[in-house]
Amino acid sequence: MRRGKLISELDRNAITFEEWQSVNDLSVPKRAHFHRWANDNIEGEPLGTLDFAMVQFSAKPPQPDQFKKPGNAFTVPADSFEKLILHGSPVER
Q1: How would you classify residue 40: left for phi > 0, otherwise alpha for psi between -120 and 50, otherwise beta?
Q2: Distance (Å, rounded) from C-alpha 28 to C-alpha 37?
């Protein structure tokens, strides 16, 4: 998606929420469009659409083990992320 660009070099886009739905008495997006953002305005036709389907909420919290780091995972320090993505430099595990 980034195609080797720094975040500061990426094209700017805007999201507009066009349709809404009610889920458990909460208003949440149903459809959003992505647009090119230039000159402090939305420009042109939508670049794409995102539909939010089967939205649900649960009062029961998820089990903590859902958030456990897998045994083969490692953490990338924030200051190494750009270098890793752009140059494939190794990161200490």
Answers
A1: left
A2: 23
Q: Where are the chain's structural domains? A: 10-87
Tokens at 27, concatenated: 């208003």
CA pair distance 39, 20, nearest whole angstrom: 28
> What's the pLDDT tens digit per position in 6-35?
877 888 889 999 999 999 999 999 999 999
Residues constituting the chain: 93
- The tens digit of pLDDT for each residue in 29-56 reads 999 999 999 988 999 999 999 999 999 9
Residue 22 tokens, joined: 């009610």
3-state secondary structure 9-70: HCCCEEEEEEEEEEECCEEEEEEEEEEEEECCEEEEEEEEEEECCCCCCCCCCCCHHHHCCC
Tell me which DSSP letter residue 85 carries.
H
CA-based R_g, the chain, Å:
19
